Amino acid sequence: MNRTIKLLMFSDVFVSTGFGLIEPILAIFIKENLIGGTIFAAGMASTIFFLTKCIIQLPFSKYVDKHDHKIRYLLIGSLLIALVPFLYAFAKHINTIYLAQFVYGIGAGLAYPAWLGLWSTNLDKHNESFEWSMYSTFVGVGIAATAAIGAGLAQFIGYHATFFIVGFMSLIGCAIIFFLDKKQEKLKKTPIHHYHKKRKLVKNHR
């Protein structure tokens, strides 16, 4: 498993595990703590997220496939996702949750196509199934563990503290991506990179 795959996997594990803390409690938080909060409102919040994500990710995936800035868009999308738990923490009205879900959808719509593109192009040949399974296992175990933990945290330390924990976990995931970005920039500046780039240009002009 190469370094890029490891960084992408651990970044997503932090974000997915973090949100696994709040997914079981978000509907209860909306219903019991917000002005205008109802079970129907909680359903609408999920709808806003998924619709926004679906509308953005298909056209954006076509765009990002033709450009060399996947890491940049992954970082931007992940930062938007990391902002969401903090919006939850300061929410007093259901409209703030709707805004948070809209931001979440934009972030996911940018981050997921970029992440999938980077992951797909960096998979080790003949180890594709193992690396996908490793990713699925890490994320699945993380979400399974945090589902119960999140409910316990909300009960004993409160919703707002739980949201802040998730926000900081997501920021750690973003920091891992930033490290990958720096690593990629360093690779681009190495002499061997310029040598291969020059060979490719010469080959394309023959």
Report on this model:
This protein is mostly helical. It has one domain: MFS general substrate transporter like domains (Growth Hormone, Chain: A), CATH 1.20.1250. Helices cover 86% and strands 0% of the residues. Helix 1 (3-22) runs parallel beside helix 6, helix 2 (26-33) crosses helix 3 and helix 3 packs parallel to helix 5 (94-122). The longest helix is centred in the last third of the chain and has 30 residues, at 159-188. The radius of gyration is 19 Å and the shape is globular. The two termini are 36 Å apart. 32% of the residues are buried.
Helix/strand layout:
Elements: H1 3-22, H2 26-33, H3 39-65, H4 70-89, H5 94-122, H6 128-156, H7 159-188, H8 191-204
CATH fold description: Growth Hormone, Chain: A
Catalogue the unreliable spans. 182-203
Q: Estimate the helix proportion, in percent.
A: over 70%
Superfamily (CATH H level) name: MFS general substrate transporter like domains
Number of helices: 8
Number of E-state strands: 0
